[in-house]
Write a structure and sequence with these properties.
Number of helices: 5
Oligomer: single chain
Shape: flat
Radius of gyration: 23 Å
Length: 124
């Protein structure tokens, strides 16, 4: 979806600002103008897509550094020189993340099962 350069600038400002007011200032447009643009379908859709892309990039980056994070937790957890609170915190974080990963896998399996069952019933 093609936006004008001014709208592109406003969208980028929205992605990097904490409020519409500061985004409008960054984009050098009026706050009312930005609010009006946010009500239009084309701008809303382009902004939604830009936010989705930014989130996907953030998730990708988190996935890339997750091994290092786990290694760090392991090092701290096993470091006899680290404070007890640091070791407990690392252990707790490791357990919390393990349980969350397990729960997500279970949910994914249940959804897959339900989708297969739904497809089976629809094909009858």
């Amino acid at each position: 979806m093609m936006l004008s350069p001014k709208k592109e600038k406003a969208m980028l400002a929205l992605l990097t600002s904490t409020s519409v007011k500061s985004a409008a200032k960054k984009a050098e447009i009026g706050e009312a103008t930005l609010f009006r643009w946010l009500k239009t379908n084309s701008f809303k859709e382009a902004y939604r897509e830009a936010r989705r892309n930014a989130l996907e990039q953030a998730i990708l980056r988190l996935q890339q550094i997750s091994v290092t994070a786990v290694d760090t937790l392991e090092v701290v957890m096993n470091d006899d020189m680290a404070s007890a609170s640091s070791r407990v915190s690392a252990a707790r974080s490791t357990l919390d993340l393990t349980f969350k990963a397990f729960e997500l896998e279970e949910i994914e399996e249940r959804i897959d099962h339900l989708e297969r069952e739904l497809e089976r019933r629809e094909s009858q």
